[in-house]
Write a structure and sequence with these properties.
There is one protein chain. With 767 residues, the chain is an alpha+beta fold. The protein contains 11 helices and 44 strands. The strands form 8 sheets. Strands 5, 6, 7, 8, 9, 10, 11, 13, 18 and 19 form a 10-stranded antiparallel beta sheet that branches. Strands 1-2-3-4-20-17-16-12 form an 8-stranded antiparallel beta sheet. The chain is globular and about 75 Å long.
Length: 767
């Protein structure tokens, strides 16, 4: 049934004689009109963000959703109440702080803010989104129909959005599951390493996030494969909320989107190092021999991640639904950790953090019976659509009583000193990873107050970034084709709101050649999270198992990763503040360059550090340089932009370039991040333009940064007088701050250098 019938008058705004009646009711955030059976609210949800809500059950109310940042601070992070940087489950966005006014334009009514206008024709239900200049972003939106899905017999609300068809449009940021940045559908699906979210940004100049009545049955959208001039949204249920964000580019959109869904917590500093995961740690001696080899071979590393063997000798895949009487779910395997607290403390003293795997199900028979009796096990039809990996022993993390019980079970591991969690196989319902992380977050807040929660998860949904989660791409194959696809997934995640992406370096299934593992490690240097892993049956991704040439090349890659930690950590604070991911597709910086609109084989860290890693066998590739002047990293060799160049890289070399007008803040090579600062801060200036960068330092482990206990050093390069100046602000004065500085300026005529103290204010002129 199309929504094109007569208008039901709910207020009084009358035109002159002979005209039809237009009417609306005012709400706290906007206006409500009635279009046949549908009640439609046009509202200002947040500064710069509109909400279009449709209800077939009376006046619309915005649906509570974990996707949306709420007004309460999370337990344990010490945050002041700030609705833009905190979150809690099941809350509704607070009233807008942006002023708005009701407007009438010809036969339309709507609301107007400083960001634009959202208008609707009450007689037909056709609506329009305009920007602040009055330009059309959505030229013609419709409310579509309420219909039943033939497969599920559930009702759905649909929207059609038609943009002006005078130029090719693209959609970015709905998640991974594709080799392309340009998406044509957002199916809100979770599976092994796939996370698609009900969101996109359109090059027409707006972003959209869909919220349905049930987070576990999210909205979906699709567009034509050749262009995004028409997008169709589908919402399960009888109500729908579409959040619309006028934004002319991906930078503007990121800042609005993060205010809507929540600011991603900064990971602990150690998580920016190298994380060695393994399925098949054999015993205590094996762990310690591995650690000694990393140390003796001078291979930097910050964490060991354990699979099944950390808590059980036999995986639970063959357990019956009723479980097994002697199965251990929460205790350590004594073969690996006979004295867990003292061992973990000893490893931590050597710079190694211990991270155990967690599964979303129970194996112990007695525990399972108790949980079934209390209704704590997820039923096959519970919490919406059950997807991949459903198990009759699945924990219902959506229940707050279950989360409290789970936190109590995790207490011993937390008190023993675990640094984080590896959450695997939780795709049975869409919100599983959010509520699972919430249980872990609150457990840490209770038993180790103030400590940052960190986890790595096989999928995600909007909102989980507020908890400090990271994600990896699942059980991928070990082959060149998969390596080529990895950056696309992680870049897509960043645009969709998850800045901390990773993969199983080397591939989970299969055996990479020494060349392939080396090139994969080199890619990992430029991923937000650098983690290697593999299945039980193959060689672990320990560098020394792949020959001396590969080990030497991997060592060089790891050393570069650790040099970049101060730079990455500062970018992560920028991501927390602005929502802009620190691993960025080229299109963010060069939106008008058609060569980079769908480029995933090379990308940026920040605005000016570009990597073009080798993704194929043989060490050769073509590198595209956008407009401007580019320097080869660490050498200063100049390359002019707007052209492609074929490059050949030796096994131990990565094609890395820096844009003119870039400042990099690098640290020394260390064995682990606990050894920072470890020497002077190496400030590299790539001349040719003025440049700015802010180094951010804090304690690296607590949430004190949320309330401003940080030190910021703002660097500025004035290219005309060849002078680097800096000024510090902030109260943090821990032992891990940099106190000395080494400045290197690259200008195409070699490298000029100077040394000094990193005083609260200072300057260096290099002619």
């Amino acid at each position: 049934m199309k929504l094109t019938a007569h208008l039901t008058v709910t207020g009084l705004i009358l035109l002159c004689a002979g005209a039809w009646a237009r009417a609306f009711d005012k709400t706290e955030q906007g206006i409500v009109v009635t279009v046949e059976q549908a009640h439609v609210e046009l509202a200002s949800a947040r500064p710069g963000i509109f909400r279009l809500s449709v209800s077939f059950d009376g006046n619309p109310k915005p649906a509570p959703s974990i996707f949306l940042a709420g007004s309460e601070p999370l337990m344990g992070d010490g945050a002041v109440p700030d609705s833009s940087k905190a979150g809690a489950p099941g809350v509704i966005l607070p009233a807008t702080k942006e002023s708005w006014e009701a407007v009438t334009v010809d036969d339309k009514v709507g609301i107007k803010t400083s960001s634009g206008e959202l208008l609707i024709v009450p007689k037909t239900g056709v609506w329009t989104l305009l920007d602040a200049k009055g330009e059309s972003l959505v030229a013609q939106g419709t409310l579509g129909i309420l219909q039943k899905d033939e497969k599920t017999n559930r009702e759905r609300v649909t929207f059609d959005l038609r943009m002006k068809n005078d130029r090719l449009l693209h959609l970015y940021g709905s998640g991974n599951g594709t080799r392309s940045l340009l998406k044509t559908e957002g199916n809100s699906h979770l599976s092994n390493g796939v996370a698609v979210v009900p969101y996109y940004w359109c090059t027409a100049g707006y972003g959209a996030l869909g919220v349905s009545v049930d987070d576990n049955s999210p909205a979906k959208w699709n567009a034509k494969a050749d262009q995004a001039s028409v997008v169709t949204w589908s919402f399960p249920g009888r109500t729908a909320d579409l959040y619309l964000m006028p934004a002319q580019n991906l930078y503007q959109e990121a800042q609005k989107y993060v205010d809507l869904t929540g600011h991603p917590k900064v990971s602990p500093r150690w998580a920016f190092g190298y994380l060695q995961s393994r399925w098949g740690w054999k015993d205590k001696a094996y762990i310690e021999d591995t650690l000694k080899t990393f140390q003796n071979d001078k291979l930097p590393v910050d964490a060991f991640i354990f699979d099944f063997e950390c808590y059980t000798k036999t995986p639970d895949y063959d357990l019956k639904p009723e479980g097994k009487p002697d199965f251990s779910d929460f205790a350590w395997n004594p073969m690996l950790l006979p004295e867990p607290a003292s061992q973990i403390a000893d490893y931590r003293a050597q710079g190694i953090h211990i991270i155990p795997i967690r599964k979303p199900r129970i194996g112990n028979a007695d525990t399972l019976k108790m949980m079934h009796d209390r209704g704590w096990i997820l039923a096959a039809g519970n919490n919406g659509e059950v997807r991949d990996n459903f198990d009759a022993r699945d924990i219902d993390f959506g229940n707050p009583d279950v989360r409290k019980w789970y936190a109590d079970q995790a207490r011993q591991m937390i008190e023993d000193g675990v640094a984080g969690w590896w959450n695997d196989e939780g795709e049975s319902v869409y919100t599983k990873y959010y509520y699972w992380n919430l249980a872990e977050y609150d457990a840490l807040a209770e038993f180790k107050p103030g400590r940052r929660h960190w986890s790595i998860n096989r999928a995600w949904q909007p909102g989980v970034e507020r908890l400090g989660a990271s994600v990896w791409t699942g059980d991928i194959q070990s082959d060149w084709k998969t390596l080529e696809e990895v950056p696309a997934s992680i870049l897509n995640w960043g645009l969709a709101g998850m800045p901390y992406g990773a993969c199983d370096i080397g591939g989970f299934q299969g055996s990479p050649s020494p060349e392939m593992l080396t090139r994969w490690m080199q890619v990992g240097v430029f991923l937000p999270v650098m983690r290697a892993h593999s299945t039980l049956e193959v060689n672990p991704r320990f560098p020394w198992l792949y020959g001396k040439e590969a080990e030497d090349a991997i060592r060089k890659a790891l050393e570069l990763r650790y040099r970049l930690v101060p730079f990455y950590y500062s970018l992560a604070h920028e991501t927390y503040e602005t929502g802009v991911p620190f691993m960025r597709p080229m299109v963010m910086e060069f939106p008008n360059d058609p060569r980079v609109q769908d480029m995933t084989s090379q990308w940026l860290m920040g605005t000016g550090l570009m990597t073009a890693p080798i993704l194929n066998e043989g060490g050769k590739r073509s590198v595209y340089f956008p407009e401007g002047t580019w320097y080869k990293f660490d050498t200063g060799e100049v390359q002019q932009g707007s052209r492609s160049t074929d490059v050949t890289s030796l096994l131990d070399a990565i094609p890395v370039y820096v844009r003119a007008g870039t400042i990099l803040t690098l640290g020394p090579v260390v064995q682990n991040t606990a050894q920072l600062p470890g020497g002077p801060l190496d400030v590299q200036v790539y001349a040719g333009k003025d440049a700015d960068f802010t180094l951010v330092e804090d304690d690296g482990i607590s949430y004190d940064y949320v309330n401003g206990d940080i030190r910021k050093t703002a660097f500025h390069w004035d290219d005309s007088i060849r002078t680097l100046t800096w000024k510090q602000e902030g109260s943090y004065q821990g032992k891990d701050i940099f106190k000395a500085i080494h400045v290197a300026v690259f200008d195409g005529n070699g490298k000029k250098e100077a040394d000094g103290s990193l005083d609260p204010t200072g300057s260096v002129t290099i002619k």
